[in-house]
Write a structure and sequence with these properties.
- With about 290 residues, the protein is α/β, with parallel strands linked by helices.
- It has helices at about 1-25, 40-55, 80-100, 105-110, 155-175, 200-205, 215-230, 235-240, 250-275, 280-290, and strands at about 60, 115, 120-125, 130, 130-135, 140.
- Strand 5 (about 130-135) and strand 6 (about 140) form a beta hairpin.
- The longest helix has 28 residues, at about 250-275.
């Protein structure tokens, strides 16, 4: 019904609209330009200078309901936490990417135009938590900003895993998944809505870096990229085989690692081919920061 009303309204307005256009052709119509005064607020100036001007990233820190599913209850970030969170992103996300060969070009071209901060956690009805989202490569949403504590390894790893994961979604949204990525461990993916019942051990034995990675091909790609970049013990846990296996679980873990190695190599080649970026160089910079 709404669609029909819109069509009727358009037809009714067609005559007057044409008449108005005809009048404007002979009249000198001057449309006043609206002047805007740049904000002098310290926070807005910081965002303008460090995010908008160099990377065209708009940072949304005030709560706006269109950025969040209306069924979710969230709180905005405390104002005092916004600049520390921005500096955290500059240090661990922007600087590592723009510092490697071809990285600046890639980052500026494909970084989402909006970053949204949520102060609280975001929970689903099933009890799982939404750490972040990437909306069609245009927006990244990050939660838990009010818990910021870079000395807390759990918070730090959750945020790094989230930002690298969501930015990896931008990669496959623009360049698809690596060839044959979906055929590496096709039997290991979990059924819809059941990934959270798996343990880390079960996920590894299936050839995945986390239970969430088993939820879909795209999530597998994004999770693997994230773990490659931020997880200090990535090679010991997910890449290198355990020696002298004597148990079925050990053999199963090594079989899972063989699958992860295939994904690892496919991802590195995919980034290199389409962006010229070497993810291992980015990992080296991230790990250097984590060890400071």
């Amino acid at each position: 019904m709404k669609h029909i009303i819109t069509k009727i309204s358009s037809l009714l307005l067609a005559g007057p609209l044409l008449l108005m256009v005809a009048c404007y052709q002979s009249d000198d119509v001057t449309i006043p330009q609206r002047e805007t005064t740049p904000s002098t607020d310290e926070l807005d100036v910081y965002i303008q200078q460090n995010f908008v001007k160099p990377y065209s990233i708009a940072v949304r820190y005030a709560y706006v309901d269109r950025y969040v599913d209306p069924s979710k209850r969230v709180t905005p970030p405390d104002r005092d936490n916004v600049i520390p969170m921005l500096k955290f992103l500059e240090s661990y996300w922007i600087e590592p990417f723009v510092s490697v060969p071809n990285g600046s070009k890639f980052f500026k071209r494909y970084v989402p135009s909006e970053v949204v901060f949520i102060g609280s956690t975001i929970y689903n009805a099933d009890g799982t938590e939404i750490l972040g989202t990437a909306d069609a490569g245009a927006r990244i949403t990050l939660s838990r900003v009010n818990y910021i504590d870079t000395l807390d390894q759990q918070w730090l790893f959750l945020q790094l895993g989230t930002i690298y994961h969501e930015f990896a979604h931008v990669m496959h949204q623009n360049f698809k998944l690596p060839p044959n990525f979906q055929s590496i461990s096709p039997q290991g993916y979990s059924s819809s809505g059941s990934w959270f019942v798996l343990s880390d051990e079960e996920a590894l034995q299936r050839g995945f870096v986390s239970p969430y990675a088993t939820s879909a091909f795209n999530e597998d790609f994004a999770e693997t990229v994230a773990f490659m970049l931020y997880y200090p013990n990535f090679y010991e846990r997910y890449y290198d085989d355990e020696a002298n296996c004597a148990t079925a679980d050990c053999f199963a873990r090594n079989e899972g690692r063989a699958l992860i190695r295939q994904k690892y190599n496919a991802i590195l080649a995919h980034y290199k081919q389409y962006t010229g970026v070497d993810l291992l160089e980015i990992r080296a910079l991230v790990q250097e920061k984590l060890s400071e």
